[in-house]
Amino acid sequence: MQVLTAATLKDALISASNHLTNHQQEVNSLNIFPVPDGDTGTNMSLTCQAAAAAMANVHSDSAWEIARIASKALLRGAKGNSGVILSILWKGFAKGIEGQDTVSGAAIVDALELGVTMAYGAVMAPTEGTILTVARLAQEAGKEALAVNDGLLHVWEAICDGARAALAQTPELLHVLKRANVVDAGGMGLCLIFEGMRSVFAENTVIQPSDGTAVVVTSNHIGDDAFQKAASAYDGDTTYGYCTECIIDRNNDRSPAQLREYLTTIGDCVVVVDDEEIIKVHVHTEDPGKVLTKALEFGALVTVKVDNMQSQADALTEQSAAPAEPTEPFGFVAVAAGDGMQSLFRELGCHQVVSGGQSMNPSTEDILNAVMQTPAKVVYVLPNNKNILMAAEQAASLTEDREVVIVPTRTVPQGISALIAFSSTRTPESNRTVMIDAARHVQTGKVTYAARDSKFGTTKIKQGDLLGLIDGKLTLVEKEHDPVHTVVRLTRSMLKKDTHFITLLYGEGITEEQANTAAEKIKAKADKSVEINVIYGGQPIYYFTVSVE
């Protein structure tokens, strides 16, 4: 194959999406820490699926037209930083082949170079040893191959080989990867995408989704299509607010019947299906966090989908996603997981709270819709997670009738502090500066558990161990499963002479009594002037989120 045609590119995009989706759990498992929220593979897979879905209704003889449509779908569907970077890489690629019906090997290399340049430019502080490095070195390998042969297949083979070689180098470029003995997850995802496309270029074969048949609901066999039919049959037939679906990668012998029994106690319309490798779950509930927390007892989460059915119904009634008129001077959008945390942001004045956080990164379009539903001329967006920041920035670039101010909060406690620091008397630029400064004075601690056996440097971690993290860095590993003891130790290590406020946000699986006990033990070791507040957060995965100011 010497040139890239529209039909071939369309098939290649679908093949790439399927190949990545088939291997997304392998990418997820490359998370540096074995916390149960490794979601790079899931984010990249969902981002690619947006482009693949867009291909279904495209009929064009122009490779550029195919690339342009895919670019728009990737941008709006982008989840997580890896998904956003992927969408920007493709945006540059599409721009690089503008107007071309067929694309030569040389043009592909040039277009990929533009994509790499745009991706590096979109990241405030580009880090080598990441997906950026893999993309750059893959493009350079393709450029070297042109000296021998400018045919599409020859160049693309070199790009794939260059990507794999670059991936192998990532631990040497990024020390934290080497300590965890893993390669970069985003880089791995990009390799899978390139290789999925190569299957079409080399063999004219579109990689198909992995087979998910021969699943079972308790004792009743049901196929994958039947699962979807069983789940969709419940649409509108429920008293609960959230339709929650997930796929679990089984890693133990626990019976799915136990999961189904539990789900019937917190919801209705329950469908649980499984085969030897996965469990699929559908349930309507008021508390999606409880579903996900319980699901994690059976294995790692491969995909998660939570829909607010009341919001969907309201949106349909109001002709869906009609933008709110920007009549107010300012408004706020925050991202948070857990009904307690979401309620807290609403009480603090947020017009829209997007459901999401670790393991549930909202897409660019999710954030964009929330911004457009905020009736304000200036909308402040609090991502509250470093992996949501780029999606928020891309959403801001898509708005025209209102000013969007991104306050780069990395945690919920930072978001709360930033929101409190806002003043209606300041300019947007001044408010952003003050809000960022307020966020910087907040340390965030989290207590969760290890989802798998792992080793980080010299520290051996066993599945089920409790983990304490401070501002995203692993600080404690405890063998005994006592979240109260762990959060007390973690918080004490965060105390400083100038500490004035401590807030404990307790999540799923923790009682108010346990949270108060932890607060009392922390107060016994803290200065008498330190104020400690206990608030229900309801966040999944993390037993406690601690704010120290």
> Which percent bin holds the helix content?
40-55%
Summed over residues and divided by their number, the pLDDT gives a mean of 88
* Major sheet characteristics: 6 strands, mixed
Shape: globular
Query: Residue ranges: pLDDT <50 for 5 or more in a row?
Result: 212-223, 315-320
- In what order do the strands lie side by side in the largest sheet? 17-16-13-20-18-19
What gyration radius follows from the Cα positions, in whole Å?
A: 24 Å
The structure class reads alpha+beta
Count of DSSP H/I helices: 21
Number of distinct beta strands: 20
What quaternary form is this? single chain
Percent of residues in β-strands = 15-25%
Terminal CA distance reads 61 Å
Provide a compact summary of the structure.
The chain contains 21 helices and 20 strands.
Q: Can you put this structure into words, describing what you see?
A:
With 549 residues, this protein is α+β, with helices and mostly antiparallel strands. It is 48% helix and 20% strand. The chain has 21 helices and 20 strands. The strands form six sheets. It has a six-stranded mixed β-sheet with strand order 17-16-13-20-18-19, sandwiched between helices. A four-stranded antiparallel β-sheet has the order 6-7-5-8, sandwiched between helices. Strand 14 and strand 15 (459-461) form a beta hairpin. The longest helix is centred in the N-terminal third of the chain and has 22 residues, at 152-173. The protein is globular, with a radius of gyration of 24 Å.
